[in-house]
Amino acid sequence: MSYDQDAARALLDAAGWVDRDGDGVRENADGDRLSISIKYNDGNDIRQGIAEIMQVQLAEIGVEVAPTVVEWGTLLDQISDPTRRDFDGVVIGWVTDFKVDDSDLFHSRNFSGTYAFSGTLRPDIDTLLDQLPLVVDRTEAKPLWKQYQELLVDEQPFTFFFFPDRIEGVSKRLRDVEMDSRGEWLNIKDWWIPADQR
Fold first, then answer.
1. pLDDT in tens, 16-63
2. Which of 42, 77, 99, 105 sits at a 20 to 30 Å CA gap from 140?
């Protein structure tokens, strides 16, 4: 997708969101401001920075954004409790396994589940999420994965900002540490420190 502010402005205009009072923020026909909060957890400078960049960039097209810091446990409750889902937008990190199955995130049958906080209800996505685990041949699976990715781009249940470059360091005292692209906590249950080095 291209970064096209003029196209974004045109889409907002077409949807009836226009700056009616000249204050730089768009309103609908009822006068409701196009204003959203973007939550992020306290103590995370990267997520705070993302929310602030969103605030600046969206202001350029007439969308008011209020970055809102929330304690981590409270934020998790606000996004994962299906009876609350108390947020407009949230900046979080996501780690996946090598075997990707997004059913908990995006399948309609899991709409009230803990991880389905995007609120996705798409039969075409459901169909692919049901098919993908059954296709073991990579050549056959590739077009299905491509179609699935295109539907996610269209739906935008999450907006993926970046994949971080990371450098991890481990003390020589700490033994049996394994890491891979999934992160540093892969086998934390197996870590140990020799008794004479504690």
1. 999 999 999 999 999 999 999 999 999 999 999 999 999 999 999 999
2. 105
Tell me if the domain spanning 1-93 has CATH number 3.10.105.10: yes
Is the Cα dihedral 128, 131, 133, 138 positive or negative?
negative
User: 167, 161, 120, 127: which is closest to 147 by C-alpha?
Assistant: 127
Measured CA to CA, the distance from residue 170 to residue 183 in angstroms comes to 13
Domain residue extents for the chain:
1-93, 94-166
